[in-house]
Specification:
Blueprint: E1 22-24, E2 27-29, E3 35-38, H1 41-44, H2 53-65, H3 76-87, E4 93-97, H4 100-117, E5 125-129, H5 138-144, H6 147-150, E6 160-163, H7 168-174, E7 179-184, E8 187-188, E9 194-195, H8 198-211, E10 214-218, H9 233-236, E11 242-245, E12 256-260, H10 281-294, H11 299-320, E13 325-331, E14 334-339, H12 343-352, E15 355-356, E16 358-360, E17 364-367, H13 375-393
Helix pairs in contact: 2-10, 3-10, 11-13, 12-13
Length: about 400
């Protein structure tokens, strides 16, 4: 009998019939000992790979001491992590949650509350961009605006105005007396690994400054080293007022964070927001351990080096298999292959070669290896991709290009 057919898990995922028993570095192992190269990292979560010794040690030590006390009391581990995140970013304050969607909810509330605290509670609307993904709560789904995720859940939460991706004139035209903020991902991950140009982010910053709006960055997927800097916004030099983090922040332990400047956070006073589990000692031990590794000398330089190597090798594969891959996108180790074939076919073909990847919008396959991936493992992955492309190319001929 198919084990999946007897599962009592709510069937909200189209799961692959594959289970892993353990992981080590960039590798995953099934119960029967089959080994897969993990270029999904739990969808950009396992930035330090599997069973990283520093992360394991920190969590193990903390769980033997204290896991949870609630936010009715001071949590020194949370104070330390918040101070470190602020020192490494634009922010003055941090709110800890458990997920990216929760971090985004806090960001949305912070932006709205800022205007209410300034005597303009009517300013609550947020300009967002088509194709974005900000989470699965009712508010974050409304922020993303994608019909396929919203259908069947009743009236859409009010307060979000979607405009086309990369269209600065549309963003300008969407601003009105009720606008509070502009929200964007520096790189759209789920939306197809679409990189937002630095000049576009600068234009948004100028718009916000001109109209008294807050600029909010969703760095749930791009943050914590994924692009070769601790935060993706650092590539552009454009600082937001509010930023959401999660995924890699805990290296596999559920942690979310909303970062804000003191000015942007002025309305978030005692009682305005909360979380039962957010910022508990166990989660904070994980977050601090991740930062210990990432802030060590040479970490990001090595990430950039292996990322450039991977991107160069992917460009070569694209050139050799134009009937399979149309474009290589992304920054750092958040890379996308826009496929010519259906992206699901490419994901399946890569998995058949024992390489785990993730699909995204715009017919893209995401490559999200752990940030500790070595050059030898990059070479292993490239060989898997070449073999998968070779198999798919046998069944998909390139489309002839018209000429004069």
């Amino acid at each position: 009998m198919n084990e999946q057919s007897t599962s009592h898990l709510l069937p909200t995922y189209a799961r692959v019939d594959l289970a892993f028993e353990r992981g080590e570095g960039v590798w995953l192992f099934t119960a029967s000992g089959e080994r897969y190269l993990d270029f999904t990292s739990g969808v950009a979560v396992n930035a330090l790979g599997h069973a990283h010794p520093q992360l394991v040690a920190a969590i193990s030590e903390q769980v033997r001491k204290l896991s949870h006390v609630s936010n009715l009391y001071r949590i020194p581990e949370a104070e330390r992590l918040a101070a470190r995140l602020c020192a490494a970013s634009f922010a003055d304050f941090v709110f800890f949650a458990n997920s990216g969607a929760e971090a985004m909810e806090c960001a949305i509330k912070t932006a709205r509350k800022y205007h209410a605290a300034n005597g303009a509670p009517e300013r609550y609307r947020i300009v967002t961009f088509e194709g974005a993904f900000h989470g699965r709560t009712l508010a974050t789904l409304a922020a993303g605006g994608q019909k396929k995720y919203l259908d069947g859940f009743g009236p859409v939460v009010d307060g979000f105005d979607q405009v086309p991706f990369g269209d600065i004139e549309a963003a300008k035209n969407a601003i009105g007396p009720a606008t509070a903020a502009i929200l964007i991902e520096p790189i759209m991950g789920e939306g197809g690994v679409r990189v937002v140009a630095p000049e576009f982010l600068r234009a948004l910053r100028e718009l916000c400054d001109r109209h008294g709006l807050l600029l909010v960055f969703d760095e749930v997927q791009t943050g914590m080293g994924r692009t070769g800097e601790l935060f993706a916004y650092q590539h552009s030099g454009v600082a937001p007022d509010i930023m959401a983090l999660a995924k890699a922040l805990g290296g596999g332990f559920p942690v979310g964070a909303c970062l804000a400047t003191a000015a942007a956070a002025k309305g978030m006073t005692a009682g305005t927001h909360g979380s039962t589990f957010g910022g508990n000692p166990l989660a904070m031990a994980a977050g601090n351990a991740v930062l210990d590794v990432m802030l060590a000398d040479g970490f990001f330089e090595r990430v950039k080096r292996v990322a450039l190597l991977l991107k160069q090798k992917l460009a070569s594969i694209k050139d050799r298999y134009p009937s399979v891959i149309a474009e290589v996108r992304g920054e750092g180790l958040l890379l996308g292959l826009r496929a010519v074939v259906p992206s699901g076919e490419l994901v399946d073909a890569l998995r058949a070669q024992k390489l785990i990847t993730a699909a995204a919008g715009d017919n893209v396959v995401r490559l999200l290896p752990p940030l500790i991936v070595a050059e030898a493992e990059i070479s292993d992955a490239v060989r898997c991709i070449e073999r998968a492309c070779e198999e798919l190319a046998k069944h998909h001929r390139p489309v002839a290009q018209g000429g004069a």
